[in-house]
Amino acid sequence: MNHATNRGPTTTRERTRAARTEPAPVGVVIATRNRSASLAVTVRNLLALPERPQVLVVDNASTDDTPAMLTRDFPQVRVVSLPFNRGALARNHGVRALDTPYVAFSDDDSWWAPGALAAAARHFDAHPRLGLLSARTLVGPADDADPLNDLLAGSPLGTATDLPGTQVLGFLGCAAVVRRTAYLDAGGYHPLLFFGAEETLLAYDLAARGWGVTHCPDVLAHHHPDPGPRTGRPAVVLRNELLTAWLRRSLPHALARTRALAAEARRDPHARRALRETLTRLPAALRDRRPLPPHVERAARLLDTVNGATS
């Protein structure tokens, strides 16, 4: 009896075809709003990757031609359309909608280098405690190294025997890959922060749940940010830094950061705006106040000392 039909692919061409059709272990979530032109560039680059990842766009209620462009030019891309702008929480919707074990994030002006997602998957497969991987980022057409690369690589937290790379408590949102179960376990991005330095809180929450957060420079992301000014961004970052302190850091640290911002606010209108916005959001932060476990707090204090933050 000939049982060849039960043996699966028997030729090199058939084996290659079968390998191509296996689902990629890493899906990509893109959060976007009103940037259809740059989004199209991002999607095109992601669809050309050899890993052939599933790409999911979460549209933060765009009012431009983003929905029509995606339907017309990229019918193979999944789209989750939100009824209003949810900021960083769009990523939470995307992670829930995917079923891949690992999820990479891109913004509508960033994408992954060929082979980067495969390298990330290997790290996650080999290190079960790894919850989030921060990539090395190259910026703009000249592929300039993002200054954050050196800061992450030089993290004073050092290495761990059961994790790849260097342990960190921060990362760049558009250059990160997560273990889906870890991300959902930590709760994803916090609704109080919207956008702007929202990554630190997620890193804290992952570390507090026992998940590793590391920087792996062999995983490469490309970022092409708009060169124009981002009006109001510094104030939003200051606000979110302070809210993060009240949400997760010890009370002495949160009070010290508030005093430092109040002193700065006397001479800087952006700092005054950040302080005002923080005060309006503080009651919600106090309702969700969950200080870091001692070992994570010690690591955060070490980073404070290195970065020159008030403590």
Automatic annotation (TrEMBL):
Q: Which GO terms describe its molecular function?
A: glycosyltransferase activity
Query: What domain of life does the native source organism fall in?
Result: Bacteria
Task: Indicate whether Glycosyltransferase appears among the record's keywords.
Answer: yes
Carries keyword Glycosyltransferase? yes
Spell out the residue ranges making up region: Disordered: 1-22
Pfam families listed in its UniProt record: Glycos_transf_2
What InterPro entries does this protein's entry cite?
Glyco_trans_2-like, Glycosyltransf_2, Nucleotide-diphossugar_trans
For this UniProt record, the keywords arranged alphabetically read as follows: Glycosyltransferase, Transferase
According to the entry, every stretch annotated as the Glycosyltransferase 2-like domain falls at 28-183
What family does the entry list?
A: Belongs to the glycosyltransferase 2 family.
Report the protein name in the record.
Glycosyl transferase
Organism of this sequence: Streptomyces mutabilis
